[in-house]
Amino acid sequence: MRVALFITCVNDTLFPGTGKAVVSLLRRLGCDVDFPAAQTCCGQMHVNTGYREEGVRLARHFTEVFAGYDAVVTPSGSCAAMVREQYPKLAKPGSKGAKAIAELTPRVYELSEFLIDVLKVDDVGAYFPHRVTYHSTCHSLRGLRLADRPTRLLQNVRGLELVPLQGAEECCGFGGTFSVKNPSVSAAMGADKTRSILDTGAEVLCAADNSCLMHIGGTLSRQKTGVRTMHLAEILAATEEAQ
């Protein structure tokens, strides 16, 4: 299966290890993974702040770059939701661009969706002997409706103890530009999330979006809690040999 990795801006710039983990995991499961070097931002920030024309241009570029692949996989529920939910609204009905978007968007998957819905696996052979709790990011929960896909994968990781997070479905307060425009509210929401995480006694906080992990992780770090943040892909890529 010919798969393209859509890495996203945040991961490419700040969390390259997540992209490497996705490639390692998918290759372990028999996928032929490409990284189209011409990929750019999906346009989410532009559209969310009113720059529709820039979003249209970036959507057009995205469809050109990723056309021809069997699947496009991304370690971001947020960016996957942008492509699947917003791209069809950006294109002019009946246009060439609308047709290209309609053809591509059904093949764009968040990582856990691809593993469970396409590859039909919920045990990827991972080993991670730690106490972990999972935060459901807003776009993955309410946009993509990932439901229990990420936790099903975590439950099958050998050595991992998955503990429930109270209020896991509540926003962490990041919300992209929301955290910039409303810093006090964002910080308060992050503090609430941090308290819930500490109550679990977990060593590691896991999520499907590094943007949210960055926000929560900042609070965890400033409070010197000792709790690490890790993207779902990095845990799933871990093996006993690598420990």
Question: How would you sum up this structure, described in words?
Answer:
The chain is of the alpha/beta class and 243 residues long. 51% of the residues lie in helices and 12% in strands. The protein has helices at residues 9-14, 16-28, 44-48, 52-66, 77-90, 96-104, 111-118, 138-143, 149-155, 178-181, 183-200, 210-222, 232-237; strands at residues 2-5, 32-34, 71-74, 108-110, 131-134, 161-163, 204-207, 228-231. The strands form 2 sheets. It has a 4-stranded parallel sheet, sandwiched between helices. Strand 7, helix 12 and strand 8 (228-231) form a beta-alpha-beta unit. Helix 4 packs across helix 6 and helix 11 crosses helix 12. The longest helix has 18 residues, at 183-200. 43% of the residues are buried. The mean pLDDT is 92. This is (Fe-S)-binding protein. InterPro entries: Cys_rich_dom. Residues 3-83, 132-216 form the Cysteine-rich domain.
Helix content: 40-55%
The CA-CA distance between the termini, in Å, is 29 Å
Strand residue percentage: 5-15%
Shape: globular
Catalogue the unreliable spans.
none
